[in-house]
From TrEMBL:
Protein name per Swiss-Prot or TrEMBL: Hydrolase
Keywords: Hydrolase, Signal
Organism: Mycolicibacterium madagascariense
MF (Gene Ontology): hydrolase activity
AB hydrolase-1 domain location: 96-482
InterPro entries assigned to the protein according to its UniProt record, in alphabetical order: AB_hydrolase_1, AB_hydrolase_fold, Serine_prot/Carboxylest_S33
Signal peptide, first to last residue: 1-29
Keyword Signal found: yes
Upper taxonomic lineage: Bacteria, Bacillati, Actinomycetota, Actinomycetes, Mycobacteriales
Length: 510
């Protein structure tokens, strides 16, 4: 399976709801002491082979590193090396277009390497250097966030994490505490304390300076919208043009954001099931009132016994849910979801669901994992406070079951495990807060009506908070810019190249 280069992740731990109690008054952004940032020398550009291996499709690509302090409060202390890729503009250069694919935890270096071939002969490739830097701890940057060995991650995925009895909750929380300990052992407490979005936004400005540009142009997907909003808040005068696609609303607390996201996945599941039902052999049948029940009949037995696959691992319950969620990100994956569910129904081979789960979790055919899920967990855990009250998690489970019944195992017990972030070994460095506009006409937000991972209303809210133009895309997928929709892409190009605002209330239909 070919991994998508746009990313918006749920938790690696069975898509557990990201919930928190009310956080009280939202913090205001502290004035940024820009002079204190370590603006150093530009990177030494060279071959990308060290990051990417063979890059024959990108003969002009250049790669290098930018050095940043691990702790901005101690700029002379230990340093991190940020991996950077640049594909130079082929025509009259406007500047660099920085791209972040989201996650958090996805590699921007890999993303630019993947998408650049399709953009070099367009107005984007002619007018902009295409640039990606891997955030601290992520991808090709060093040090890496690493929590688990390959064997430990495989073992984690075999855990159903579905029993919400008192003993089951205690077991799940013990699994999460072990993950937290592994992250300290594999990454180090000091580095874990400094991997949040607030530090990465400062890193982005150091990269901007290293590129020699006074202002940035930016395209952020999914979590990349949160990074872009943080940058705009800290360095608004240094933003020329910013496109935020698949919006995460930084002002939303994890309770409402988690339930809203689960509802988005239910909507996408319903769309998938309706399309599947057009075929007489759909494993969910043809009755819309039974889609969820038929799905649960197929996956619930996996809590007790893995499903059949040609891979000796079999299909665990956690992998079935993860694989389903991955398929809902794009209609291109729906056929693999159908074939996997048919394998469960017939008792033959549900391997396509396992492949979908492997793709989501970053496991390659050799059994080696990227660090994207470890990075996802570490970054989100320091980006917001998480509650420790059992009652909060029980209520979150109740609301989540109502929002996404296709993900709900068994009956509501009145108990639920705390999220791993509630037991994280370092304190949060951010909290939900209102975002500020970097200035009129600088930001465009793109939001998809049936986006599962970053639901449409989050984009509406973010556009309002930033005073930004909003492009609405009618479809069922996660993010859309430069994925082939002429309406969205033409409006995006006009904005990035010529600073032309999209028509008011622009709606693009799939």
């Amino acid at each position: 399976m070919i991994a998508m280069w746009w990313v918006g992740r749920l938790t690696a731990a069975l898509l557990v709801i990201l919930v928190s109690t009310a956080l009280g008054p939202r913090a205001s952004a502290a004035p940024e002491d820009q002079a204190a940032l370590p603006y150093g020398q530009p990177p030494v550009w060279g071959s990308c082979a060290g990051f990417l291996g063979a890059v024959q499709t990108l003969p002009t690509a250049q790669c290098g590193q930018v050095t940043v302090p691990i702790d901005y409060a101690n700029p002379e202390g230990p340093q991190a090396q940020l991996a950077v890729i640049r594909v130079p503009a082929t025509g009259d250069r406007i500047g660099a277009l920085m791209v972040n694919p989201g996650g958090p935890g996805a590699s921007a270096v890999d993303t630019v390497a993947t998408m650049a071939a399709g953009l070099v002969d367009t107005d984007i490739g002619r007018r902009f250097d295409l640039v990606g830097f891997d955030p601290r701890g992520v991808g090709h940057s060093t040090p890496q966030i690493r929590c688990r060995s390959d064997a430990e991650f495989d073992a984690f995925r075999r855990e159903p994490l579905a029993d919400y009895s008192p003993a089951g909750v205690a077991h799940i929380e013990a699994v999460y505490r072990q993950l937290a300990r592994e992250c300290v052992a594999g990454t180090g407490r000091d580095f874990l304390a400094n991997v949040g979005t607030a530090s990465t936004a400062r890193d982005m400005d150091v990269v901007r300076a290293a590129l020699g540009d006074d202002q940035i142009n930016y395209l952020g997907y999914s979590y990349g919208t949160e990074l872009g909003a943080k940058y705009a808040q800290l360095f608004g005068d240094r933003v020329r043009a910013m496109v935020l696609d698949g919006a995460v609303d930084p002002s939303a607390d994890p309770v409402s954001d988690g339930v809203r996201q689960l509802a988005g996945f239910q909507t996408a599941f319903d769309d998938y099931a309706a399309a599947c039902a057009q075929s007489t052999d759909c494993p969910l049948g043809q009755d819309p009132t039974q889609f969820v029940a038929r799905y649960r009949q197929l996956v619930d037995p996996l809590v007790q016994r893995p499903g059949p696959t040609s891979d000796p691992r079999g299909l665990s319950y956690q992998d079935a849910i993860t694989g389903t969620a991955n398929a809902l990100y794009t209609q291109r994956y729906w056929k693999f979801l159908t074939s996997g569910l048919l394998g469960l129904q017939r008792g033959t081979d549900a391997g396509d669901l396992l492949l979908l789960a492997d793709d989501y979790q970053g496991r390659n055919s050799d059994g080696h994992y990227s660090n994207q899920q470890d990075a996802f967990t570490a970054i989100r855990c320091v980006d917001s406070p998480y509650p420790t009250s059992p009652a909060v998690w029980a209520e979150a489970d109740r609301e989540g079951r109502a929002a996404a019944p296709f993900m709900a195992y068994g009956d509501f017990t009145g108990q639920a495990p705390s999220d791993v972030c509630a037991m994280w070994p370092v304190p949060p460095t951010s909290s939900p807060q209102d975002v500020a506009s970097p200035g009129p006409g600088k930001v465009v937000v793109v939001s998809t009506t049936h986006d599962p991972a970053t639901p449409y209303d989050s984009g509406v809210d973010l556009a309002r908070e930033l005073g930004a133009s909003l492009i609405t895309f009618e479809g069922t997928q996660h993010t859309v810019v430069f994925h082939g929709d002429a309406c969205v892409d033409s409006a995006t190009v006009a904005f990035l190249v010529d600073s032309v605002q999209p028509p008011a209330n622009l709606v693009c239909e799939h």
